[in-house]
Amino acid sequence: MRDIAQEAGIEAGSIYYHFQSKDQMLSEVLDLGVRQLYQAVSEIVRSAPTSSEGFRKTFGLLIETHLTYLLTDSDFTSANIRNYPMLSDETRAPHRELRASYAGAWGKFLNDAKRAGHLRSDISTAVIRQFILSAMNWTVEWYDVDKYPVRILAERMSKLILDGMCPHRKADTEGLKLCPATPAKIPDPDSKAAKTRAEILKAAARVLRDNGYKATTLRKIAEEADMKAGSVYYHFNSKEAIVDEVLNAGLRDLLSGVEAAVRKFDARTIITPR
To answer: What Cα–Cα distance (Å) separates residue 95 from each residue in 27, 42, 62?
Structure first.
């Protein structure tokens, strides 16, 4: 409570005049975090046009609204997304109905779009809704609003998702091209240096998985790898360099798995001429 009072620029005793406990304050913060966003999204869904192009524009607006509240406009929303998963079931219980209503607003929008033929018939709206909300909520851990406007993130995310879930149309990839990172010089894989780098990356992946990007430090990575921080700096000059390699390794593993699945599928479906 003392930290909250300092942030608000008031005496700690003044907080107790308005709130009986930290739990009461937390409950109101969580409620506002979703309620404000729910009201904004519900209004967009209610006024959504029914045409295919109208659906795409509305979808983009919904994405931008969610990301804007989460990343720049509402400390209540970001506080909700960051803290809700870590709370006890008892603390979360009063907020489940409102969160379900918010997810329901997205569900209605997607279901209406599917019935109108704006989504592919083989798409599960429940799955795609969960995917969209989870993908947006995770941005609070990695997106740097000081480097790129939220509007750009929203546009790119909208295009990527729409091109995957809508009936076939030429993908609009303008603005989606990524600049490949300059490949790092990797030592001989059998050398001691290469093995140490590999151990650091494995440790970093575990720390990132458990703590998220912002809470991950080179010191934590060194502790997880059971080595001194100086050893980490010898192989990587920054946390960002480690994260880049961890992400690239994850994508390579995913790509290898997908390619293997595709090859296996192709082998089963090849029709041998008679």
So the answer is: 8, 18, 22
Q: How far apart are CA 220 and CA 208, in angstroms?
A: 10
What's residue 7's pLDDT? 57
- Tally of residues, the chain: 274
Dmax (CA) of the chain: 87
Closest CA to 60 of 139, 126, 151: 151
Q: Is the C-alpha dihedral spanning 179, 211, 37, 49 positive or negative?
A: positive
At 219-267, the pLDDT tens digits run: 999 999 999 988 898 999 888 888 888 877 876 776 677 666 666 655 5
CB distance 67 to 136 below 8 Å: yes
User: What does the pLDDT read at residue 162?
Assistant: 86
Q: Using one digit for the tens of pLDDT, what is the confidence trace for 7-30?
A: 556 565 665 556 566 666 666 777
The CA-atom distances, in angstroms, between 88 and each of 79, 91, 98, 269 are 16, 5, 17, 49
Q: What is the DSSP letter of 271?
A: P
Q: What angle do CA 48, 49, 52 make, to 5 degrees?
A: 115
How many of the other CB atoms lie within 10 Å of CB of 243? 19
- Contact at 8 Å (CB) between 53 and 117? no
Residue ranges and CATH numbers for the domains of the chain are: 1-165 (1.10.357.10), 192-270 (1.10.10.60)
Q: What is the pTM of this model?
A: 0.58
Confidence of residue 3 (pLDDT cuts 50, 70, 90): low
